[in-house]
Amino acid sequence: MAEIPAPTFTPLACDFGFQKTTKAKDLLQKWNLSPDLKVIKFRIEGHMRRDPESLLATCKAVVSDPTVCASLGVAIPDTPDEIKIDSLSSTVLNMNFFDVLMQDDEVVTSTDMVRACMDETFDGVTIQDKLREMLVNPDSENGCIFTEAQKNEFIYHMLKLVVVGGSMCQSEEKFFEWKEMTKALYKDTVSVMKSAKTGKVEICSSAFHIDPWGSSPLFKKNNSHNKYYISLDPSAGIATIIYKPFVPFW
């Protein structure tokens, strides 16, 4: 049997909604995301199926592709098979997913205020509120608000990316801005379609999380707040990359 050639990736010019308006650009700067956050779509040329093995193989091709690496400004990994890639769920279709944060007014109040807390630093991130503390402190007393299954949802990872931000991220008093940016980023990076069986809208793309540590040159410094995600849409032949290295303040 002839060997199937590796896919190739061509960058696509996209006008992403999450960074389109002046307000959005100001918020990305406020949260220290604008200097290093990259979201790029690529056209996939090559065979790709929807089965988990094929999708994982495509992800490995993405992280080692010269065009993708050049677009991200990273070195090509010598051993891409050693890079840990985790599959994420992509089932959330509305922002009610975040209503649990208002449970007992512990993290976000019923008036949308984010609860403040004492200053703490976790792996280079200084936090001053309970939302960011919940997301970066592995021993947070609020860590059980989201179930383990919910924490594996792609939109939860997008929330964490937005809320944690960069090392000089300025906090928000209200949750609204963070939620709206998470929603916009999520919509820009997943694909939806109407199911022929149910007639309901479903997410048809698959999301993956690339290990922020590892032994690869994908990040200049190892840090748990490094972010690298791949969203694959096999039907359209599109790969969307979300890449955000964490640059410590000191």
UniProtKB/TrEMBL annotation:
The answer to whether keyword Secreted applies is no
Recite the UniProt keywords alphabetically: Cell projection, Cytoplasm, Cytoskeleton
UniProt similarity note? Belongs to the CFAP300 family.
Transmembrane parts of this sequence: none
- Recite the lineage of the species: Eukaryota, Sar, Stramenopiles, Ochrophyta, Bolidophyceae
Q: Which domain of life is it from?
A: Eukaryota
For this record, an example GO cellular component is: axoneme
Name of the protein in its database record? Cilia- and flagella-associated protein 300
Q: Which organism is it from?
A: Triparma laevis f. longispina
* Alphabetized PANTHER family for the sequence: CILIA- AND FLAGELLA-ASSOCIATED PROTEIN 300
Q: Where in the cell is it found?
A: Cytoplasm, Cytoskeleton, Cilium axoneme
